[in-house]
Write a structure and sequence with these properties.
The chain has one domain: Nucleoside diphosphate kinase-like domain (Alpha-Beta Plaits, 2-Layer Sandwich), CATH 3.30.70.141. Helix content is about 40%, strand content about 10%. The protein has helices spanning about 5-10, 10-20, 35-40, 50-60, 75-80, 95-100, 115-125, and strands spanning about 25-30, 65-70. The two termini are about 20 Å apart.
């Protein structure tokens, strides 16, 4: 996902460029604004965390880009491309290092396992929306 901060700061194109240059194939993509219900459900795994309410508010503050990406070892490769959750700790050249401002407004989300990639892909896309 490209998050509301990166969208409103005009970084959609640059981030997609980095993703494609990183060798990822885009299988599905959509530009949408999440409702509180949808964002809350997407991040349900974090429901008990103290930042959950703010995370849902932030993720519904503007449109996002959701995408399914394909590459060998895609989860690991994408996490490397985006850098640490906290942009202050993200390596130079990573997407969060270049485009993120804070741990909450951290420009992008990437799935943390193959199982979650499948769950999150199914959350946003039906089979007929995939190439
Ligand atoms: P993301 O990869 O989308 O998964 C959960 C998100 O919670 C995370 O990125 C951060 O943007 C957000 N978040 C906000 N505060 C914190 C925090 N203190 N620790 C971890 N994640 C946080």
């Amino acid at each position: 996902m490209i998050k509301p901060d990166a969208v409103s700061n005009g970084h959609i194109g640059a981030i997609l460029n980095d993703i494609i240059a990183g060798g990822f194939k885009i299988i599905a993509m959509k530009y949408i604004r999440l409702s509180k219900e949808t964002a809350g459900a997407f991040y349900a795994v974090h429901a008990a965390r103290p930042f959950y309410g703010e995370l849902v508010d932030f993720m519904t503050s503007g449109p996002i880009v959701a995408a399914i990406l394909e590459k060998d070892s895609a989860v690991e490769a994408f996490r490397k491309l985006i850098g640490a959750t906290d942009p202050a700790k993200a390596e130079a050249g990573t997407i969060r290092n270049k485009y993120a401002k804070s741990i909450e407004a951290n420009a992008v989300h990437g799935s943390d396992s193959d199982d979650n990639a499948e769950i999150e892909g199914n959350f946003f896309f039906s089979q007929v929306e995939r190439f």
